[in-house]
Amino acid sequence: MPRMDQNSPKPGCRTGPQLPTPVFVESSPAPPGIGGRPMRVSILLQITGDDGAIGPAEEVTTFEKANERPEDLGLSIAEGKAMLAAVQARTVLVQATTWSQRRRCCPACGARRRSKGSYPLVFRTLYGDVELDSPRLHRCPCQTTDGPATVSPLCDLISSHVAPERLYLEARWVSLLPYAAAAGLLADVLPIASGANRTTVREHALRVAERAEAELGEERPCFIDGCPAEWEALPIPEGRIVAALDGGYVRNWDDRKSNFELIVGRSVPEDRAPRYLGLVHGYDRKPKRRLFEVLKSQGLQANQDVTFLTDGGEEVRALTELVTPEAEHVLDWFHITMRLTVLSQYARGVAHHDKAKSARLLAALDSIKWLLWHGNQYRAGEEIAFFEDDVDDLEVSYPNLGKFKRAAHEFAVTIASNAGSLINYGERFRSGERISSCLAESTVNTVISKRFAKRQQTQGTKRGAHLLLQTRTRTLDGTLRPLFERWYPGLANDNGNEAAQADAA
Ligand SMILES: [Zn+2]
Fold it and tell me: How many domains does the chain have?
């Protein structure tokens, strides 16, 4: 039993009048307030209707609390869940009943509609699944006989049977964690059964993504509208937007031997929050529209400079074409150096077989890098051609020779096919412009790797991956909550969205 200083009770402490310094003897009863019977905590709920009628104060739940150990203080997880579930169930019940009663009469003629019993309905909320009885009413005789024979007013209110904020949190957590982990996390802290929730959580998250997808406008081969004279009349734009796009692969769950390609991107305006983009290549029917909408949400104007940084791949490059008039496509410096690094490794490997040739190849690569960095395309092109020939002519027993030759050829093709997308990187870099900074690469890692690439987390089908990318990119750039607030304007008044604010920051 802990000793308490009985001579200086704290204000508000319920130890009653001052007691003499206690002397504890085996048989002595515990003094009041110390180690007596557990206290009883009753939670009362009183609801005043919108008509001002004050309902009874009902006890929703009761806890017996000991007061001996740190774990006795406050509500336990189980008690917290029980309290939330009980308050939620009562509140929703009163609200649902009020809603149904108000709609008992025919909205057309005002006659009271005949009841045809009710049917059970489960409304899934963050604070538990609430079981409700949804009253069923006969169709009013004043109505045509085309419609359904019965109506259930409650279905107009909760047609999806899921509370918007439950959908929101499920979609958000599923974007960050595997389905089972997200379901477990919800069940850890909220009065939601974890059992079948893995499937439910998945289904809900996909539903959210599908709703967002349905809002996306139609695809167009070209998003450039108007004419240069109109664009010039526009106000001066806020600054350049730099958008990095890159590809990544995930395993196909249907056919484990094959992969499918994702395209992910990050668009960074000068003065606005960045946004992410993600799609499954070949599955997405609206890739250009998707990119256009991301830029538009960042205030894109037709007279605004936009730089698209890519790895130079055909599909990704095609995606950036005809999206906005003042766009330039730039081969990402990071991807150039990455290829040069691989080539240097091969060239170094040649040293074990021919030191002189290895040194010559490495020197050539240094020169190519320097020429590309300074935008000297013509000479870089020549050097690359010589280099490719030199590698082709190598006759050494280097085991990676075949790979080396292939890599040299691919590099030459990439540079040649992106001739129009090479810039003076050095100059841009000195003027403080973003020319790479691994923007694209880090985007791939952020959007894909953590969630998709690990085998045990791979969420299979192209459709599933594509939909999940839609909620994931929105979770990452903080636009998931604003989307919900647009769908459910009542959520906008809620201050409980620190998580979304933290994301946006
Ligand atoms: Zn009627």
Answer: 2
Query: 43-62: buried (b, 16+ CB within 10 Å) or exposed (e) per residue?
Result: bebebeeeeeeeeeeeebbe
Whole-Å CA distances, 51 to 54, 87, 94, 275, 502: 9, 21, 13, 46, 39
Q: Tell me if 365 is assigned to some domain.
A: yes
Q: What separation in Å is there between the alpha carbon of 186 and the centre of ligand 1?
A: 44
| 158 Cα: distance to centroid of ligand 1 (angstroms) | 23
What would the pLDDT profile of 457-485 be if each residue is shown by its tens digit?
Answer: 445 688 888 998 999 999 999 999 999 99
Given a contact cutoff of 8 angstroms between Cβ atoms, the answer to whether 183 and 198 are in contact is yes
CA of 159 to the centre of ligand 1 (A): 23
Question: How far, in Å, is the centroid of ligand 1 from the Cα of 98?
Answer: 20
Tell me if 391 is assigned to some domain. yes
Note whether residue 149 is domain-resident: yes
154 Cα–ligand 1 center, Å? 18
- Asked whether residue 370 is domain-assigned, the answer is yes
- The distance from CA 80 to its chain's CA centroid, rounded to whole angstroms, is 28
Domain boundary residue, one of 402, 425, 448: 425
- pLDDT digits over 341-358, tens only? 999 999 999 999 999 999
> Can you give the pTM of this predicted structure?
0.82
* pLDDT single digits (tens) 279-314: 999 999 999 999 999 999 999 998 999 999 998 888
- Answer with the one of 99, 123, 154 that is the final residue of a domain: 154
The Å distance, Cα 105 to ligand 1 centre, comes to 8
Picking from 289, 285, 292, 284, the residue whose alpha carbon sits closest to that of residue 308 is: 292
Span 220-231, pLDDT tens digits: 999 988 888 888
| 330 neighbors 317 (Cβ within 8 angstroms) | no
Protein residues near ligand 1, an ion, with CB under 5 A: 106, 108-109, 111, 140, 142
Instruction: Kindly give, in sequence order, each residue whose CB lies less than 8 Å from that of residue 239, ignoring residues fewer than 6 positions away.
Output: 269, 270, 271, 304, 305
Q: Residue 8: its pLDDT value, please? A: 42
Q: How far away, in angstroms, is 138 Cα from ligand 1 center?
A: 10
C-alpha R_g of the chain: 33
Residue-range definition of the domain harbouring residue 95: 30-154
Where in 332-486 does DSSP place strands (E)?
none
Instruction: Return d(Cα 268, Cα 197) in angstroms, integer.
Output: 37
